[in-house]
Specification:
With about 120 residues, the protein is an alpha+beta fold. It is built from four helices and four strands.
Length: about 120
């Protein structure tokens, strides 16, 4: 969510992760905005303001519901910084709730990059 200070900080750590790892082609980040009050224009302004250069999308209500049903309603609470990793085989790995710094993200993704 563009209003969420935790989200901005988490995204900054993701940005630093890509830099730290040298922008590998097989590390693809996607940020889903689950705030139904925001739109594409909000996201474009947000990504331009902070220089975030990966994929951002507004999650439609159906996706919000599916995320909530699959992983819990906490996945729809942006300040909890919910994140998951999808590996090369399509397996989903949930990361702990809360802000994850660059080093923590690196530890989480590197095993899957080296598969």
């Amino acid at each position: 969510a563009v209003w969420c200070p935790t989200c901005i900080l988490q995204a900054a750590y993701i940005y630093k992760l890509h830099d730290l790892l040298g922008h590998p082609d097989d590390l693809i980040s996607v940020s889903l905005d689950v705030d139904l009050n925001e739109d594409t224009a909000d996201l474009k302004e947000y990504t331009a303001e902070y220089g975030f250069d990966w994929h951002f999308a507004i999650a439609p209500l159906e996706i919000d519901r599916a995320l909530g049903n699959l992983y819990s309603a906490q996945y729809l609470n942006p300040p909890l910084a919910p994140m998951l990793i999808i590996d090369r085989q399509g397996n989903v790995h949930l990361l702990p709730y809360g802000l994850k710094d660059t080093e923590t993200l690196q530890e989480a993704v590197e095993p899957y990059l080296n598969q």
